[in-house]
């Protein structure tokens, strides 16, 4: 080891003699040694792979099926650096084709120039940062264009699969939160694309003040743009539930959402489910309406809540119609009235139920989707928005190791010429324990008064506005 270190030191001194004349510049010295170490490790990897290629060439069993043709070279990008790899090309007698045996043994596709770890690193950085940063972070010695990262992602189409458990969990009630992020489209910034998010969990546990944890949360994201998009999205949720939970023992699936059309139809696709309007959007609509009234705002808010708790639809209509005449934004009041009436049954299920869990969809949309897809005025193509959305969801479930699994699956499919090799069949295996340290912020956004706690509203029997 000491001999190797001394040889490296002599190489650095000889190669960078002029740069090392100034010995007080530690920053410069450190960069030189880092650059040298990367070059040495990359060349070592190259030499190791070429020696392995020679071993395959001298193997006696190889002569029976493959005939040596010539030596070909290819630039390989690894996390250590980029190097030119020389490999032997063979002729396959049975299949009547030419190939490189080293590439086949290492599961590197014929026209692929990245190692699996470099590809996984690119996906990890591109999922969390811009394409330009991803081009810089693959390794320390190279910088790739954002166009190259763009086209790499454009080739990926991820189809998440679920492994059925032998012993399924027995849970009486499951919860699902649904929401979407609005993503700007390239060359048409006025048009928005919906990237959907849905996550299944078993319960909500209080960690500390104003902080909650969702137990055994599983996130599913994606644009699902085609005509059967909603059916495919809810099909993924159904597949996850059926593979991990005993559906015969399961009694109810409670779905929370903001009342969007694609969310209200979720009960038609998900088994044993019922839709409830989440309390955050319910209170938001009430506050936006009462904000347009200058006087008696608190009384109007209390009266609207009283009508909702007592399931008095006619009184609510009369109340809001009277408020519209005094509002300085009548359209806002009409919009709130229609919103409450269209979701009336879902609101009643939310307010009068005793098995609710609240909704943290806004926080999850912000941390999982918006942090990458819709901040800083970004514009996306439809395919890459779907790919990044799915990768963000997979990362929320499996962490950083998910990118390595995705890359290995992708390389295996392309090397073995699987059907639909461009569609990555990513298999999710549910974890037994939920790691709080790796979870995203799951904070309940707001609460509204409980039926029994809100005595002041109920004591006010006569609504006088």
Would you give an account of this structure?
The protein is of the alpha/beta class and 465 residues long. The chain has a domain at 166-409 and 428-438. The protein has helices at 2-15, 26-58, 62-65, 101-106, 116-128, 131-137, 146-154, 229-244, 261-264, 279-290, 297-309, 313-326, 330-342, 344-352, 361-373, 382-398, 401-415, 455-459; strands at 66-77, 82-92, 97-100, 157-162, 173-185, 188-201, 203-208, 211-215, 218-222, 252-257, 273-277, 423-428. It has a five-stranded mixed β-sheet, sandwiched between helices. A hairpin with a 4-residue loop joins strand 2 and strand 3 (97-100). Helix 5 (116-128) packs across helix 17. The chain is elongated and about 90 Å long.
């Amino acid at each position: 080891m000491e001999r190797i270190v001394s040889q490296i030191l002599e190489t650095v001194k000889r190669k960078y003699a002029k740069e090392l004349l100034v010995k007080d510049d530690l920053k410069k010295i450190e960069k030189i040694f880092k650059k040298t170490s990367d070059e040495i490790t990359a060349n070592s990897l190259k030499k190791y792979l070429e020696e392995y290629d020679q071993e395959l060439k001298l193997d006696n069993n190889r002569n029976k099926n493959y005939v040596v043709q010539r030596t070909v070279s290819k630039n390989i990008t690894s996390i250590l650096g980029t190097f030119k790899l020389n490999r032997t090309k063979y002729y396959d007698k049975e299949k009547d084709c030419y190939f490189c045996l080293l590439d086949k043994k290492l599961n590197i596709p014929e026209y692929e120039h990245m190692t699996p770890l470099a590809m996984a690193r690119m996906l990890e950085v591109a999922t969390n940062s811009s394409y330009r940063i991803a081009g810089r972070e693959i390794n320390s010695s190279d910088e790739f264009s954002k166009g190259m990262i763009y086209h790499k992602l454009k080739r990926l189409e991820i189809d998440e699969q679920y492994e059925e458990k032998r012993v399924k969990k027995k849970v009486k009630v499951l919860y699902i939160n649904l929401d979407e992020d609005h993503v700007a489209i390239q060359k048409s910034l006025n048009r928005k694309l919906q990237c959907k998010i849905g996550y299944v969990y078993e319960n909500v546990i209080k960690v500390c003040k104003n902080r909650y944890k969702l137990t055994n949360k599983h996130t599913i994201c994606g644009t699902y743009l085609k005509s059967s998009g909603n059916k495919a999205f809810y099909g993924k949720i159904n597949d996850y539930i059926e593979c991990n939970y005993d559906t015969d023992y399961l009694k109810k699936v409670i779905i929370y959402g903001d009342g969007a059309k694609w969310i209200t139809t979720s009960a038609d696709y998900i088994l044993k489910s019922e839709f409830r309007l989440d309390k955050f959007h319910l209170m938001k609509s009430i506050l936006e309406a009462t904000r347009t009234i200058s006087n008696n705002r608190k009384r109007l808010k209390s009266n609207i809540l009283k009508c909702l708790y007592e399931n008095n639809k006619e009184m609510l209509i009369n109340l809001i119609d009277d408020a519209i005449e005094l509002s300085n934004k009548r359209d806002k009041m009409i919009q709130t009235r229609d919103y409450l009436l269209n979701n009336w049954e879902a609101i009643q299920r939310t307010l009068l139920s005793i098995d609710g869990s609240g909704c943290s969809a806004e926080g999850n949309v912000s941390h999982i989707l918006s942090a990458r897809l819709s901040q800083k005025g970004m514009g996306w193509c439809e395919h890459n928005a779907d790919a990044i959305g799915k990768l963000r969801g997979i990362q929320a479930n499996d962490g950083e190791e998910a990118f390595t699994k995705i890359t290995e699956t992708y390389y295996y499919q392309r090397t073995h010429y699987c059907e639909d090799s461009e569609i990555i069949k990513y298999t999710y295996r549910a974890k037994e324990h939920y790691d709080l340290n790796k979870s995203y912020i799951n904070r309940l956004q707001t609460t509204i008064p409980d039926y029994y706690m809100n005595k002041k509203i109920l004591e006010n029997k006569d609504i006088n506005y």
